[in-house]
Amino acid sequence: MANGDTSFPKIADANWWKLRDLFKRKVPAIVTPTYLATALSMGEASARSNLIGPFKKIGIIDSDGKPTDRAYDWRDDHKYKAVCEALIEEYYPQEIKDLFHSPDADLQQLTNWFMSHARCGEPAAKMYARFYILLLKADPSEAEAATAKKETVKKASAKPKKKKEKAAKKPEPVVSESDANVQPPVAPIPAQPVQTVLSNAPELHINIQLHISPESSAEQIDRIFESMAKHLKDFNK
Fold this sequence. Notes:
The protein is mainly α.
């Protein structure tokens, strides 16, 4: 660094591209907090600390807020790379330029370097590191990528939350034509207990009188009783 100061430029990517876009449309006569607050829809205090202060530091605007010759070169896509290279040459020591000289430099190692040399905390050192990588890229098309990323985040945050879906109803079983012709099994009817009904009918008594001739032999009499026993045995059931 030309003046030996250990305070490095620290500008967020979004603020870098926002102000450059304003300058590409029309370079203002003077950059004030109210101008930035209106043009970029931000607070005046934020515009003063995050835009005016840092851009004065790197010479885009002078101490009175007026754009410099560098501001005109900075907004020009064809001269943008030369401006980035000039900023690296003016504000960074040779050591960091020797160690980290390409856009694919390791962000954590670069952050550690700034923590050591700027004697700051990690959040501030990471901002120093990101801005240094932005200058190494020196690519004006990065503005389009940053804008696209911002729109994606904006749409994602504005997307309404999905309501919890109601539990899906169980689908009714599909009955094929062949199944429809099949009769469902009939549940068996439980056997009913048999009730015994006492009959009030009168009992039947049969009196049989036999007239046997005295001339009948003993053998004939036996046959008569055998026949009677045979025919009358069903009455006992």
